[in-house]
């Protein structure tokens, strides 16, 4: 009898847990607007099989387990279906690139190569993660450490440690600990402007320009406070920018990234935002695979 009650308790607990998680994710769906972080289009034919640097953008690295599979079935949340890649897929993608001779480099190595202006002799990949949530910390970074692959995490400095769009962001104490690893670079994803106004990124809304400058200064203050130095890299939320914002960041020697598909090479103008491909099933097969030799 005791075993029966125990089993019933476990079943009820699992059902309630799934319903709570589903409700949490569904709320973020209801709050989502039409615009999303996406890389549209395909790789130009002239860039296929060519040497150069491709910057890859990931968001969530989730475990392929029963609870996540149930959530995937119960919700249409883009955080699960579009922004999340399971651990096995992520590792398989890294293996695919390594086996085909793609070399993984850091942001700083990329800048040094471009500034030298010499023709690139290989294909290179730079890994980036937007938002820096707990799934990346727990599931993605251990794989990169094992492979000795560098990466850059773009953090929303004003909401670290909180829940954002149904996912838990990494705390400052965790960021500080991870920043001690030479493989990890910390960049900015705004302080608290990662949201939409009238289906547009708050960063590019005209009346938000002065607010953006204040937001940027606050981000850098937090970087100095927790990590001892300012960030040198900035990823535009939703990939959206304006010439005025870009000039502001370039004047401060900050390298910026959009979500436009393309390669970086020795002729790339780094005073403009650099192309970056958000990885999902479509872009992996339509952009990355055609590029790799």
UniProtKB/TrEMBL annotation:
Q: Which domain of life is it from?
A: Bacteria
Which is a GO BP term held by this UniProt record? carbohydrate metabolic process
**UniProt cross-references to SUPFAM superfamilies, sorted A to Z:** Glycoside hydrolase/deacetylase
Residue stretches making up the NodB homology domain? 123-293
Q: Which Gene3D superfamilies match?
A: Glycoside hydrolase/deacetylase
Query: Which PROSITE patterns does the protein's record reference?
Result: NODB
**Subcellular locations according to the entry:** Secreted
Molecular function per GO: hydrolase activity, acting on carbon-nitrogen (but not peptide) bonds
Gene Ontology CC: extracellular region
The UniProt keywords, alphabetically, are: Signal
Query: What PANTHER family does the annotation carry?
Result: POLY-BETA-1,6-N-ACETYL-D-GLUCOSAMINE N-DEACETYLASE (PTHR34216:SF3), PTHR34216
Instruction: Output this protein's name.
Output: Polysaccharide deacetylase family protein
């Amino acid at each position: 009898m005791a075993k029966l009650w125990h089993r019933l308790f476990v079943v009820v607990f699992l059902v309630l847990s799934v319903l709570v998680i589903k409700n949490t994710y569904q709320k973020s769906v209801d709050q989502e607007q039409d615009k999303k972080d996406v890389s549209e289009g395909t790789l130009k034919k002239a860039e296929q099989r060519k040497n150069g640097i491709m910057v890859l953008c990931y968001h969530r690295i989730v475990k392929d387990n029963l609870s996540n599979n149930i959530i995937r079935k119960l919700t249409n949340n883009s955080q699960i279906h579009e922004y999340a890649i399971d651990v096995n897929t992520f590792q398989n993608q890294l293996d695919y690139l390594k086996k085909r001779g793609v070399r993984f480099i850091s942001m700083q190595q990329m800048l040094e190569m471009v500034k030298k202006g010499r023709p690139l002799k290989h294909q290179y990949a730079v890994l980036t993660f937007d938002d820096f949530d707990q799934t990346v910390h727990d599931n993605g970074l251990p794989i990169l450490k094992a492979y000795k692959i560098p990466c850059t995490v773009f953090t929303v400095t004003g909401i670290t440690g909180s829940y954002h769009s149904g996912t838990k962001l990494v705390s400052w104490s965790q960021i500080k600990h991870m920043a001690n690893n030479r493989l990890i670079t910390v960049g900015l994803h705004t302080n608290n402007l990662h949201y939409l106004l009238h289906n547009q990124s708050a960063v590019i809304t005209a009346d938000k320009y002065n607010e953006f400058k204040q937001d940027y200064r606050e981000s850098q203050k937090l970087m100095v406070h927790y990590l001892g130095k300012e960030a040198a890299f900035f990823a535009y939320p939703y990939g959206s920018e304006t010439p005025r914002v870009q000039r502001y960041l370039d004047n401060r020697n900050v390298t910026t990234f959009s979500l436009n598909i393309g390669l970086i090479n020795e002729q790339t103008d780094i005073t403009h935002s650099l192309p970056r491909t958000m990885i999902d099933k479509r872009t992996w097969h339509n952009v990355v695979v055609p590029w790799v030799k």
